[in-house]
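WARN retry 2 of 3 for item q-0093 after timeout on previous attempt; input resubmitted unchanged.
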Amino acid sequence: MSVPNPGDEQALVFFFQYGHAEAEVMEVEHHLAFGLDWVGLFPGRDADRTGFYCSFVDLVEKAGYTEDEIALELYHRFQITPFFALQPDLQYVIDAGGASEDAVAASLRLEIVF
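OK item q-0093 returned
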């Protein structure tokens, strides 16, 4: 996949993250995440961004956690004007906080650039 050039109307970007910490020091030993960010997915909405994010958190059992956590996120950023954007976001978290219960969260971000 190529990195988008400035001025491109459409671009698909893949990203990957990995983190590691010693289990004796932190409650999270491994963190693995990846996602996609698509600029200009819909015709006529060249500055909008649509994305998906997936995160896996390896929680340390010695810290009392019984499950690891997986989070899935979907968002769309509406670029209304060059200085104003709205971004609804939906997250589904499997075994949230290391518990055996799932969670759903929705949010709406308002961005104003001065």
